[in-house]
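User: Can you fold this complex?
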Amino acid sequence: MRLFKYEKSKSVLVFLAVTLLILLWSNQSGSITLAPAISFMVLFGIPLYFMKPMPIFTSGGDRLARYLFVAACSFIFIFLIAPILIIVPLSFNVEPYFTFTTGMLNFEASAFSLRWYEDIVRNGMMAPDAVTGWWSDMWNNAQWIRSARNSFFIATIAAFIATTLGTIAALGLSRPEMPYRALITSLLISPMIVPLVITATGMFFFYSDIGLAKTYTGVILAHATLGIPFVIITVTATLSGFDRSLIKASQSLGAHGWMTFRRVIMPLIMPGMISGGLFAFITSLDEVVAVIFIADVEQRTIPRQMFSGIREQISPTILAVATILVLISIALLTVMELLRRRSERMRGLTPG
Amino acid sequence: MSQETIAIEDSSSLKKRLANAMKIQRRRALLLTMPLVIFLIISFVIPIGQLLWNSVYNPTVSNVVPNFAIAIQQWDGQGLPSEEVFETFVSDLVVAKKNREIGKTVGNLATRINYALPGSRSLFTSTARKANKISAPYKEGLIALNKKWSNPQLWLSLQRNAKDFTPAFYMAALDLKYDDQGNVVQADKLYQIYMNNFFKTFKLSALITFICMLLAYPIAYVLSTLPLRQSNLLMILVLLPFWTSLLVRTTSWMAILGTRGVANEVLVYLGIIAEDGRIQMIYNQTGTIVAMVHILLPFMILPLYSVMKTINPTYMKAAVSMGAKPSYALRKVYWPLTIPGLAAGSLLVFILAIGYYITPALVGGADGTLISNLIAGHIQKSLNWSLGAALATILLGAVLILYWLYNKLVGVDNIKFG
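Assistant: Here's the predicted assembly.
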């Protein structure tokens, strides 16, 4: 009877029994189909998996409410994450479609291939099968590689500008004696709020007038502008927990301004600065509207290439690129999480 | 007695010195923000200011036919302008014909008047070709060339557009026009595209915000109540989409929602819909709504989560211990405490939604596009920059009002990510 110690075990048994019944019933109706059983298992199994055992005195209504709540949450989480996971297997499709083939569903090896990943480096090359000079050909001519180089170049410089200026401004904003704080903060956050089309259009006209349109400088300036709000938000958040008496302590021990900044303030706000910089970096890496308006073919970035790829010829190469981008975001997210923990440890909060 | 005066003097000078010191401190703090403020003014504020300027600035007519632009202002609008006005017009046209400078050609003038009076484009270009052959009397000569020149509407429109600043683009953006008597009236039902598009944008954004609210509330609740280890794990499911490229997410929704996409395949496989009854879920409003809810959901979850995190769980326990049913306690205790977070998230999502461009452009089709797409169309395709600028200004006004509201209700320094 140990099996029935938890309410959940009972539910699991009922669940399995019903699944079996459905299977038997669909067998009976002539054509053998797994569909009803699978949908039942997905619909009820997932919430059941996440249900926690409830006290014995819980009423039936409460149980039902709790169950519906867990079910709703499970499906919302699936809604959030499924679109990101689903492109990974699709990018290995041997066929040029955006959908799962029968072969893929049966896990046949022949249904999977790396051809779209190959296409990333080969598309646009002069001689994709040449032996000599393959690397330089790929580096200089392959479309996606060129876009990737542009993207990383632009994003690195834009993030650097945004982080430097943003951190200095955040240091000012977080001082208690800062005048017009609300006004200036709302100005500095506004690039995030103003619709991108408006920003990009304005920049297009203005940068055309001063000769910055269709140049790297123009795109970098635009991306630095769009990254600034994220730096301001993250760095001021770090500074809000900053103990200002540390500055006084350092000054009383004889350190002057720069020394205090370098040895006391900087190490403490470093995690915030890096995550702000990463935010600015990924904002630039992901930005496409400003690039559409301001950049020329020469400054084409990965998102710009994806945008025209989606509009003109839908090829699974886009899915392969998307999978690589997801991996990059996972890497950045991990770095952010590590930084957050480090910053919490340094500020004496309990680590997560 | 004398001691008291000294004390007063001392304290006042101390006050002064303190005020001075504070002033220096304030100036220093302000100075730190200055590099960024100047950077933003150059790279962001001036460009947008110039855009606003473009929406009222209308130099075409006075650029192409400068003397005529001055002369026509004397006309009272009754019948046809005088012979002198016609003469300056023809002589200006002869000069303009030779001009090749962008913005100052007859073609530009023709395009500009064509916005106001559709179908009048060729009138200008063909007349300009023969303008040097017209001799006095100019009025009769011009009308003999083309009978359309005897239409007072044309001259009224030229007079209106000869001014350097015009409300015409805002009128077009608000679906208004001048009638034959020169009064401002609503455009014909068929041409009322812009207001309809604004309404559609607001309606869809409100719907998206509402769906985000429904989906974010339970998620934020779960994240804020679970033990830290589990909630951190689940937080990844929220933050990963947040960090993933917008285009990646839009692409994957195309793979899911297409007629041959994953969602339709699953429904067909399960026998819920027939093979030939596949649902059109993309390139319409459904596609826009689903993809935008997915993209904007983290912006609702994160502010809600940070508010729910601060709610002490003992409040709910106290309510239940005093006899409230869980649902009643939820409604009367928990819900009111979460309203700040809900307001912050909704305003943020709504502000971001009304300005959205990329996702509607890719998955919206004809039906699911928003006002941003219309603006981009005017800037990139139809090249009616001034109308695009006027539409952009109206949208910007709406966003700034909401942003001001956000500042009032939430405070701009309360935006947080993770």
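Chain B has three domains: 1-48, 60-164, 195-414. The longest strand of chain B covers residues 176-178.
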